[in-house]
Amino acid sequence: MMKRLAEWFNNHSLRFKMVVMLFAVVLVLQAINGLIFTHIVSQKFEENISEANLETVKQMAINLNRAMEDIVNEMVPIRDEVFSAQMLAEGGKTRNDYVSQNIVYQDLFNRLISADDNYQFVHSMLILDENSSWNYSYVLDEYLQLNQEELFQKALTDNEMTGPCQWSSLLPASYYFLDSKEEVVSIMMPIYRYSQVKNLLIVNLKAEAIRKYLEQLGKNENTLFLQISGDHGIFGLTEDEQRFREAQMDRLLSCQNQREVRELGEHVVMSGELSVNQWRLSMITDKSNISSSAKVLSQYIVVIIFSTGIVLLICVSYIVFIVTKPIQKMTQIMEANRHTRQISHRFHSRYRDEVGVLAETYNHLMDEIQQLLEDVEKEQIQSRKTYLRMLQLQIKPHFLYNTLEAAKFLVEMGDPKSMEMMTAIGKYYKLSLSGIYDRVKVSEEMEHLTSYLQILKLRYSSKYDYAVKVDPEILENEIVKFSLQPLVENAVYHGIKQQRKKGYIKILGYQEARDVVLVVWDDGAGIGQEKLEEIQQKLLFADHAQMTEHIGVINVHQRIRIQYGAPYGVSVESEQGAFTRVEVRIPWKKYKEEPEEAWDGEDAEQA
What we know:
Blueprint: H1 2-10, H2 14-90, H3 98-114, E1 122-129, E2 136-139, H4 151-158, E3 166-172, E4 183-193, E5 196-206, H5 207-217, E6 223-229, E7 232-235, H6 238-243, H7 247-255, E8 261-264, E9 267-273, E10 280-286, H8 287-340, H9 354-394, H10 397-412, H11 417-433, E11 439-441, H12 442-459, E12 464-470, E13 478-480, H13 485-495, E14 503-512, E15 515-522, H14 529-540, H15 551-564, E16 569-575, E17 579-587, H16 601-606
Parallel strand pairs: 12-14
Antiparallel strand pairs: 1-2, 1-5, 3-4, 4-5, 6-7, 6-10, 8-9, 9-10, 11-13, 14-15, 15-17, 16-17
Helix pairs in contact: 2-3, 2-8, 10-11, 11-12
């Protein structure tokens, strides 16, 4: 079914195939873009919402911090007044009586609550003395009587004074006053004399006022929570307090000591800290609210991508039609020339675009083809002469004779390998006789060498095995033709056949820096140290080497040196009785189809 479908598709016009393929590409790309883009945008949108909420809660924390700082700043003059009164009393100077001092503190308290919006937070102010008879209390809205306890000592015992300003946790107002049911948060400023606390200035803030302030700040669907201490906090709305009880409340309080953004079950908690007292203000948002907004955005994105894909497909189809129309017409002209064989048809384009340039080039080509045919005929004559000389250089009669004798023997014996032998021989000599130039691709050289190895393997099946491993990236590089065959021939005849055990030959090819390295390795008889040094000297002075034994190695080395220069050529390593490694190093150079300069015709005839 798939084969018929592919055949049906391939038999259609280029225009049809381009439209179908573009449609498939657009469909796939749009689907991938939709999945990836919506995922990324949704995720980014959720992150942006979280970041926006985080910035909002930080700004809320700044506003609340500013309100708390205002109260603390207004407490400083009161503390200084208390300190001055204390020093006057201890210095033996006249101290104001209780009533006069009370009037001064009352005035300072009035200034405290009238500054900014402090009146909405302040519940009361206490000035406690180590001598309880000098305690002062001021209440904003109602008269409350102080407890008869030793409040000064009680406050010092219950709160560790570690700085100039100490904040308590949530306290019942009955901690200080009789018959009070409110909750307060105390700001305590100790007043020292001789490193001892002599007085305490305490301003109590109404917890309910703080909650109302949070309610005004959080005019949205999110929950605001202000952590006062490690185990106490205030919610912006009382109904929110009912949602976070027991285990959830413990987890919420633990979140306050963690990162600015943290997940809490089905909620996301974003926090900001108040610098004045290290309270943490948090906004608690349902994950569903964030994900639902992102889902709506994703739906819009999918619709946009889908509509964009349709428009893109229509535009691309129209462009394909415009581009392929002149090409289709030009194809018809070419077909007419092919059928008539008179090369009389021409295609004249209206525009000077790529198709117009192609048409003009095609017309010039048709005008010159007759002259080219005559030139080709002359070149063919010259090529035949050159081809004969290449045959004389490439074909070794004794190898051909021995190989054919071996093939004949296999055929007479009815050996099933005879067909493989004949196929390898045909392929080997086809590659040997193809082409007239001295350079070929590495891939062609490997194909020729593999055929040669197959022939030798069939002739000497029990003598050796071989393996060819060449990196694909070097196959398109050029190499001097028949560079490796003489080296493999030496490996077989001078290495493998000179020992009793079965041998092994490896052909390797790889890139090293900007060079191509080809290696012929065998585990045959090897070369003695004296003979190896002699060969290496001949390779070093290849121009003056005697063409005696190992002529294949020297010949390959000389041909590479002539073609590429002194840095390249053949090197030999060997250990007698162990291995022989012959390395061919050539430059990294891609093969080009340009014909090399042919031999002179007279030389070809003499050859």
